[in-house]
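Section 5: illustrative case.
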């Protein structure tokens, strides 16, 4: 199959591109480095020529509701419009478990993204996944004398397992809303960050921060946990940390 990956140069995007190519698919990377701008639609028409399916793992790094909604609204609108014109038969988007329940700024953008996909004319699959193990590494990567870690209860999954599952879904028929993908265990993000830093030999104090109001309560409660049965990753966080220690 000829499959396009929006955000194919990002953290999960690179893994999806690699997994698809290993399965023998012809992959088109939709990114600015390849002459495609999702926020304006530039280059999309040409890039989607002959494409049968699109995997959207595009992203924006922000906690702002306005910026998140603006990005996902623009990118999704341009993608769906170009896909419809090109006759794409399957739009697969990666979303987040809890984005429909937790009113955090970034999640509201993902919620808008899902709404547009459901309202569009292109057959679709929405996969909601929990936080990746790699989120702890992203938190540590921020500079400063302290490591500011959000207080959140989650069921983290390895990014490589997210990519593998997206590849399986891309090869199949559109499902609408797919069952939630999560990891094998429920953990606290603050503890994950501390464990990863300890494994890396870091010494910065980790400062737990709980968001105010209902958002904070949802994040420290069950708001980010999967609902119902669904696929579960097998790589535990400690196993991933061991792999990270070998590669870091």
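Designed sequence:
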């Amino acid at each position: 199959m000829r499959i396009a990956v929006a955000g194919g140069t990002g953290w999960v995007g690179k893994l999806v591109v690699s997994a698809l190519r290993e399965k023998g698919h012809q992959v088109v990377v939709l990114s600015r480095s390849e002459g495609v701008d999702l926020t304006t639609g530039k280059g999309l028409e040409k890039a989607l020529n002959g494409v049968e399916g699109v995997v959207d793992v595009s992203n924006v790094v922000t906690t702002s509701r306005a910026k998140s909604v603006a990005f996902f609204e623009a990118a999704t609108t341009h993608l769906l419009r170009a896909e419809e014109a090109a006759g794409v038969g399957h739009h697969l988007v990666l979303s987040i478990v809890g984005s429909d329940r937790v009113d955090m700024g970034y999640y509201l953008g993902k919620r808008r993204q899902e709404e547009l996909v459901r309202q569009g004319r292109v057959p679709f699959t929405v996969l909601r996944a929990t936080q990746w193990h790699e989120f702890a590494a992203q938190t540590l990567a921020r500079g400063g004398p302290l490591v500011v870690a959000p207080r959140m209860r989650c069921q983290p999954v390895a990014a490589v397992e997210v990519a593998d599952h997206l590849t399986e879904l891309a090869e199949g028929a559109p499902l609408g809303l797919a069952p939630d993908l999560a990891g094998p265990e429920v953990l606290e993000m603050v503890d994950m960050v501390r464990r990863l830093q300890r494994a890396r030999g870091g010494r910065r104090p980790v400062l737990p921060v709980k968001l105010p109001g209902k958002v904070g309560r949802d994040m420290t409660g069950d708001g980010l946990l999967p609902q119902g049965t669904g696929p579960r990753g097998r790589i535990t966080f400690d196993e991933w940390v061991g792999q990270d220690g070998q590669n870091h």
